[in-house]
Amino acid sequence: MASLCVRVLRLGRFCSLSAHLNRNFQVCRQAGHPVRKAGWYVSSQISCHTVHFTGPLSSLHGNAGTVCYQISPKITCPLQPGPVQIQCGHRFHTSAPVRALPAPLIWLVLKPLQKLLAMILGRSIRKWWVALPANRRKLIRQWVWQRRWQLAALAGVVMVIVVLLVLTHLDESPVTGRTRLLVFSRQNYMELATLTSETYMEQFAELMLAETDPRHQVVERVLQHLVQRNKDIPEMSEVVWSVHVVQNPNVNAFVLPNGKVFVFTGMLEATADVHQLSVVLGHEMAHALLGHSAEQASLSHVVDLLSVVLLTAIWAVCPRDSLALLGQWVQGKLTQLMFNRPYSRKLEAEADQVGLQLAAKACADVRASPVFWQQMEIRDKLTGVPALPEWLSTHPSHRNRVTQLDRLIPQALELRERCVCPPLPATDPRAVFSKSVRVLLENAKDQGTVGSGGSVKPLPHSPARLPAALLAQNTLTPSPNMEQESKDPVPVLTSDKTVDSAEEQYRVQSTS
Predict the structure, then answer these.
(1) Catalytic-residue membership of 284
(2) What does the pLDDT read at residue 341?
């Protein structure tokens, strides 16, 4: 047995035995059964012996120690014949698992590289063609013409392969059931969202509001209320949602696919009540539930791959680099205007629809949703923000959003009623806001802040700051079928006087 162990040490190989290897290896032999050549049979009676070795084996432990291995008595099947290879060592070390980069992140890194390669390839083809003599060019043209049908068949095969790849990557949207192209999986974007959330947490570390801040508590309650009322959606219940309120005057809020919700204080100032805040959070949560980031990246990935072929052709056909650069710029703008931006507006409209449904199931007053975008339109005019045509923007215009939401409100009200929500006030927030805007415009004309054409002039110092009336609101009794995780009720508006006072505050601030 000692010579066997020495041989094993010299071979330096490893084997897997059904045994637990300790600090001291025990050499066990079978009691009462001889070793056969065809295989070893191990019975339930095992006797272990301790063997003391000196020389090379003892150097593993420093001194002559107990080195052994133990065979489990549960083994009943014969082992394969051949040399027995055993690892003799002090202890085992395993390296820490290495996490691979998410596929979308790798694509973002390689995206500019593939354009550079297309430019180099197209330019090389052009220089090669220019350097050819006239007779060689003629021969190549003849060769292409003679094999035009074979080349056309090859192009058809490539197109079939592309179509098959597209068909095999079709997916169904979770809530709407819409068929879409999804190259990157949800798991890939969850990994990317984890990295992105860590970056945002470091970036906003000094600007985060404390959890005891009333503004943070309001957003937390509204978010948990939305989650609780929409637990029937699997994508909603699978994610752990958390709120992070950032001290920033920008009117912005976004939700990452892993449930990290970031709300700027500028957004809280732009919302007049928790109904509007519910609609805004529902819109952002809809982006995460529907996987719009993965869907948009998938379309962009496919378009970029097709654009590489076109970009190579541009650099190969254009006689000069300046013309090739101009053609590349035109190609990039056409891609944005024809594919990326229209698709982005489509996803925004879908998020508006699903977000309105989430808010309706949470018993919010969905009639306040178009009011929010009307407020945003007035805010942009008062602050002098230029209004771009919708076809140049990644988002629908405020006016088109108001029109779409007005069309969806009847369905949302029916859904709200089916969810056994408390009745809404008789006064429509849209009518209240329209009346307030008329008063605002009349006072603005008296103050001379309206131009001759009826357009509102931008205010020189303070922007149009919509009232942040979230903290001064009363509470609403939850609906009978609601299961609340927190004892604190969700704050909502309960009287028209609060709306009127908020609008009056908005009017005074805008005209002062």
Answers:
(1) yes
(2) 93
